[in-house]
Amino acid sequence: MTACRRAVIALGGNAMTGPDGSATPAAQRAALAVAAAAVAEVVATGVEVVLTHGNGPQVGNLLVKNEMAAAVVPPVPLDWCVAQTQATVGFTLADELDAALAARGLDRRTAALVTRTLVDPADPHFATPSKPVGRYLPADEAARFVALGQRWEDRGARGWRRVVASPEPRSVVDAPAIAALIAAGFVVVCAGGGGVPVVEGGGPLAGVEAVIDKDLTAALLARELGADTLVVATDVPHVVVGWGTDAARPLGRVTPAELRAHAAAGEFGSGSMGPKVEAALRFVEGGGERAVVTSLENIADAVTGDAVGTVLTTP
């Protein structure tokens, strides 16, 4: 492989919470410090790094606050929750990464940018919301939010859960600002949670209540920034086919055609590995040099070589 010049690294949810899934401020900061140390290893190689991240647990916490305080203050819309959690995770990750870079004697700084992602108001996902967010509630409590215009579904014994649209990302509105920060020498944290979803309507851009898949936005951003490599960090070292069976096997170096065939055969869950595989495919099929899906501790090796993770390249 040729030396990587610019990499987009998409941090998964395991980089945002404690080992037990705890999302307390202390647990989140400790988890982000571990992620920052891994990212600093990549920066130390001289590669330009852009970081994206998840925000599911953080948005979930804000939605609980919305529910509990609904009789006191008006609930804030979902796009506001995405923006708020981008800022919270962004500044915390920037602090931890600045510290990790300084510990390695690297004269680099981090900038965090609240990022908007353009979606199509006619996207069919708006007509059939299916992405579950937040916690389960009994029917009478869910009814309060249905009255506010939210969509909730009966999920059986566990109760009712809110569902929202998950539209396709069309472009990252703030990609030029991200590029300018890279050119100025910053490591950039951006597009958290897939970005704040916005639509065009003939006037100013407007936020919409939706959740964009973070990995699909990372793939789009990587193409828009001309990155060489996309690394999708998750909690396993490889993409696995035959998961949960005696025939399970990890995938190493694969072609887009091979990985598409596995996806078409239903090998990857839509709520877990599926979007990560799709993001890797879109990046490489769209002209990117290589994409790697691997665990957080492997990201430095994933950027600099082909010895770890599931590596997707053009034939």
UniProtKB/TrEMBL annotation:
What are its GO cellular component terms? cytosol
SUPFAM superfamilies noted in UniProt: Carbamate kinase-like (SSF53633)
Note the Pfam families from the entry: AA_kinase
Entry's Gene Ontology molecular function annotations: carbamate kinase activity
**Has keyword Cell cycle?**
no
Q: Name one GO biological process term.
A: L-arginine deiminase pathway
Q: Which UniProt keywords apply?
A: Kinase, Transferase
Which residues does the UniProt record annotate as the domain Aspartate/glutamate/uridylate kinase?
A: 6-295
- InterPro entries the UniProt entry points to: AceGlu_kinase-like_sf (IPR036393), Asp/Glu/Uridylate_kinase (IPR001048), Carb_kinase (IPR003964)
PANTHER family named among the record's database cross-references: CARBAMATE KINASE, CARBAMATE KINASE-RELATED
Q: Which family does it belong to?
A: Belongs to the carbamate kinase family.
This protein's name: Carbamate kinase
